[in-house]
Amino acid sequence: MLPIFHRQRECIGCESCVEISPNYFRMNKDGLAELIESTKVEEPYIHAQGFEEDRESLTEAAAACPVHIILLDRP
What we know:
2 helices
């Protein structure tokens, strides 16, 4: 499994992660991206697990984030 770390409170709602990795991110009612299946919250990060075969799209989503709040493996 591939650890995903997301600092949701810093999200600006650009939707790039949702467009690139819709199996892991969605927009919430406040217009901010969130991890679909978070496993725990450890401020400032929300954690989730991804599949290794999705590393490429998750890496692309992290790189496309204009505020750099998506990290893979470790913060």
